[in-house]
Amino acid sequence: MLRNDLLRELAHLFFPAVCMVCNEQLVHSEECICLRCLYKLPRTYNFKQLDNAAEQLMAGRIPFERIATFCIYVKGGMLPPLIHQLKYHHQKKVGILLGRIFGEDLRGSDFLKTIDVIVPVPLHPKREKSRGYNQAEVIARGLSESTSLPVIVGNLNRILFNPTQTKRSKTQRWENVKHIFHVEDPNIFAHKHLLIVDDVITTGSTIEACGIALQECPGIKISVATLGEVI
Ligand SMILES: [Zn+2]
To answer: What Å distances lie between residue 63 and 1, 23, 66, 109, 127, CA to CA?
Structure first.
């Protein structure tokens, strides 16, 4: 047994890994989430449903092809602790895992048929530096593992922190969001169908801001996939 393996075994013995949802001890074949919780995740399967709730939320705000969300995100539900671990406890592996499972759902579906490339919603560089990674990119890597689609980072960039949007009017919100993101080289995305990936869709203002910035790429098509959908 290699030294690293041995250390891992010992760590497992003294600090057994537990399910991030129910805190039950995991068995060896399980990672982050026990099978029982994995089975019970409140998946939407809305990639099969045209004009789903997320698409209705974004209708008329940016041009898009389709929007799919993996699970419902509701306070006290199963997804918030998983997203929390991904964002604030350096648990990248749960983002990879959920992205990969979501990708398995989407693989072979009409939703994915014409997608060329996955583009995670970027964090502001300062935020990414303090967190150590971008959680949307981690999810995108998982999606890429199961769909074989390439991931492009560094061409869509966040140049401003995203201020709170909630109490603003539609016009104020537009003024607020239109300069949050910037496309470095529009030619890289030109005539491509992008799958924009984020952790959770709430008001849709982040996706809206991305969509606005991406409009300068000629012939671009946009679809969106997020792990959670706030209801
Ligand atoms: Zn569990």
So the answer is: 55, 42, 10, 21, 28
What's the 132 CA to ligand 1 centre distance in angstroms? 27
Q: 78 C-alpha vs ligand 1 centroid, how far in Å? A: 9
pLDDT in tens, 132-155: 999 999 999 999 999 999 999 999
Residue 61 CA neighbour count, 13 Å, CB half: 22
Distance of CA 176 to the CA centre of its chain: 22
What dihedral angle (degrees, nearest 10) is formed by the CA atoms of 97, 101, 106, 107? Answer: 90
Amino acid (one-letter) located at 154: G
CATH of the domain at 97: 3.40.50.2020
pLDDT tens digits for range 46-59: 999 999 999 999 99
3-state helix, strand, coil in the chain (%, to 5): 40, 20, 40
Overall domain count for the chain: 2
- 197 and 217 assigned to the same domain: yes
The rounded Å distance from CA 93 to ligand 1 centre is 16
- Listed in sequence order, the residues at least 6 apart from 127 whose beta carbon sits closer than 8 Å to its beta carbon are 161
What is the distance in A from the centroid of ligand 1 to the CA of 210?
35
For residue 28, the enclosing domain spans 1-40
